[in-house]
Write a structure and sequence with these properties.
Layout lengths: L9 H64 L1 H10 L8 E6 L2 E6 L17 H90 L1
Antiparallel strand pairs: 1-2
Helix pairs in contact: 1-2, 1-3
Length: 214
């Protein structure tokens, strides 16, 4: 609100001071929220980094197991077995609340591939390869979950930072300027009233002195 149209009244001064107090409390809450989001962000970042390192090791072991299975069973036999493997079940994604941010969470009970009965007597080398790549699939889902959550947290951190900055650097200074303006107008009106009283008093004295002379 432009200062020119602010009503310099006691009520307006009280209201503005209350708004400053509310804005300050809101600013403090936003700063606390941002700090908590940053802590969660770095914790997830460390976990995602660890999972990526684990994934590299699992992929290396997985491809080594495939080469071993191919050596043991032959490429033709391995390809025939691969055609019989069951499809990966669809996954369900739920959400969890992290400081007001909805982040994805993979339902861990939905991404295990179910072995078909006819595959129960798989060669050991092939069974080992399947287990390796099921583990890889699990880690990939974990990484996707964590990195999606990181993007959402980062977006919320930036949003919270902008809101806090607007309150701290725009709203509160503007309200404080309003308070100063109202107090300045009060002082100005008080000076005007004092000058007027002095003028009236002087005139009364002058009139009294004139009447005494007459």
């Amino acid at each position: 609100m432009p200062l020119e149209i602010v009503r310099p009244t006691r009520l307006e001064l009280i209201r503005t001071r209350r708004r400053i107090a509310v804005a300050q409390r809101g600013l403090n809450l936003l700063k606390l929220k941002r700090s908590a989001l940053i802590v969660e962000f770095f914790a997830l970042s460390r976990e995602a980094l660890r999972l990526r390192g684990d994934l590299q090791e699992r992929i290396a072991r997985g491809y080594e197991s495939i080469r071993l299975a191919e050596m043991m069973e032959g490429p033709t036999r391995l390809e025939s077995i691969s055609m019989l493997l069951p499809d990966i079940l669809p996954i369900r994604v739920r959400t969890k609340n992290v400081m007001g941010v909805r982040t994805p969470r993979v339902d861990r009970g939905t991404y295990r591939a179910v072995a078909a009965p006819e595959l129960l007597d798989l060669p050991t080398s092939v069974d080992e390869s399947i287990r390796h790549f099921q583990g890889i699939y699990s880690v990939v889902l974990d990484i996707a979950e964590k990195e999606n959550a990181l993007r959402r947290l980062l977006k919320e951190i930036e949003k919270t930072k902008r809101r806090a900055s607007a309150i701290e650097n725009v709203l509160i200074p503007r309200l404080q300027a309003t308070v100063r303006y109202i107090k300045f107008r009060f002082d100005e009106m008080e000076r005007d009233s004092f000058s007027m009283l002095k003028t009236v008093k002087r005139k009364i004295q002058q009139e009294g002195e004139g009447a005494a002379i007459a």
